[in-house]
Automatic annotation (TrEMBL):
It comes from Altererythrobacter epoxidivorans. One of its GO terms (molecular function) is glycerophosphodiester phosphodiesterase activity. GO terms for cellular component: periplasmic space. It comes from the Bacteria. One of its GO terms (biological process) is lipid metabolic process. It catalyses: a sn-glycero-3-phosphodiester + H2O = an alcohol + sn-glycerol 3-phosphate + H(+). SUPFAM superfamilies: PLC-like phosphodiesterases. The keyword Signal applies. Residues 25-321 form the GP-PDE domain. This is glycerophosphodiester phosphodiesterase. The lineage of its organism: Bacteria, Pseudomonadati, Pseudomonadota, Alphaproteobacteria, Sphingomonadales.
Length: 352
């Protein structure tokens, strides 16, 4: 444990990370400032921008009338009040999405007009009760509205603000619903005047949609990977194979970056794995997901106290470790700028 504490103390000199400075990793607002506002709302995105995020990340799903909107999942009951709306009780369905049976209400069964009558709510109210105070205030935003917000904030602040949308469950939408998310996204970007010269990355856990995006556009692309499983469109392929040197060389033929779970980038003692070096040898950038402030999401040695909802400095330290590992950016639920941490606080937290 002493080795980790020493490493954490060294990292203090590297935080907070100031966005858009050469040599610093990009700060990507994970679903907006989702530790402070209900995720995927215009309020969450705006707060993240005001706190200095370089990029904001909308997760994209599709309505019945083929409008791209932002939700963590196409199932709506975790993030909206749809379950309490009697007029939509008959819309409840059970579907198989990426191999999992899911029961609930789905964005693709609602027109945009119907969806706009719903109101967003906090997905993790036990961990983020402060966010629940905002339940009922915000609508589900469209991609068009998100782009408009970014442009308005660029004009206000005088700085560029990037977009890094994730297309959610594209294989499910294509095979089960007959909806081509690649085509929808490229069409929407053309309509909105978003081009590959803008600070935009497009993400997916599936490989084939990225391959099609590579053929049809010049946007930068990110393959998302996690410790278990593999792409839904490649049932015989595992992410563990895709992040080997040989696998990464193949990934580089259709993507510009890998977005990896933190546990794939750092060992238990905080030292970097070989993934960053291997990816960069293949010509790929590396983004890490996700830094969250609450104890429940942090390694045991970085927690502050025993309350799962407790917040200390572990997320700031984790950002420092990832910076030292050489990542090009990281997703975070809360701004790290201005956070006050010291060696004694970190050592005490690490010893718990």
């Amino acid at each position: 444990m002493s080795r980790l504490v020493g490493m954490l103390a060294v990292m203090l000199a590297m935080v907070p990370v100031v966005p858009l400075h050469a040599g610093k990793p990009l700060v990507i607002a994970h679903r907006g400032a989702s530790a402070e506002r209900p995720e995927h709302t215009l309020s969450a995105y705006e707060r993240a921008i005001e706190q200095g995020a370089d990029y904001i990340e909308p997760d994209l799903v599709v309505t019945k009338d083929l409008v791209l909107v932002s939700r963590h999942e196409n199932e709506l009951s975790d993030t909206t009040d749809v379950a309490s709306r009697e007029e939509f009780e008959s819309r409840r369905r059970e579907k198989t999405i990426d191999g999992q049976r899911v029961n609930g209400w789905f964005a693709e069964d609602f027109t945009l007009e119907e969806l706009r009558t719903l109101r967003a709510k906090e997905r993790l109210p036990n961990l983020r009760p402060g966010n629940a105070r905002y339940n009922g205030l915000y609508q589900v935003p469209t991609l068009q509205e998100i782009v408009a917000l970014v442009r308005a904030k660029e004009a206000e602040t005088g700085r560029r603000i990037g977009l890094i949308p994730e297309i959610k469950h594209p294989t499910f939408f294509l095979q089960a619903e007959g909806i081509d998310m690649v085509d929808l996204l490229l069409k929407e970007f053309r309509t909105l005047g978003v081009t590959a010269q803008d600070p935009v990355y497009i993400q997916s856990f599936d490989a084939a949609p990225l391959g099609r995006l590579r053929q049809r556009s010049d946007f930068k692309l990110v393959l998302l990977v996690k410790p278990d499983g593999g792409p839904e469109d490649e049932p015989g392929l595992r992410y563990a194979e895709m992040v080997t040197p040989t696998g990464l060389a193949e990934v580089a033929t259709f993507a510009d970056a890998v977005g990896a779970h933190v546990g794939m980038l750092l060992g238990p003692d905080g030292s970097p794995t070989s993934l960053v070096a291997d990816a960069k040898a293949a010509g790929l950038q590396v983004f890490a997901w996700t830094i969250r402030p609450e104890n429940d999401f942090l390694p045991a040695q970085l927690r502050s106290g025993s309350d799962p909802a407790g917040v200390g400095c572990g997320d700031v330290v984790l950002a420092g470790l990832l910076t030292a590992a050489g990542v090009d950016g990281y997703f975070t639920d809360k701004s790290l700028a201005g956070r006050k941490c010291n060696t004694a606080m970190i050592a005490a937290g690490a010893d718990r």
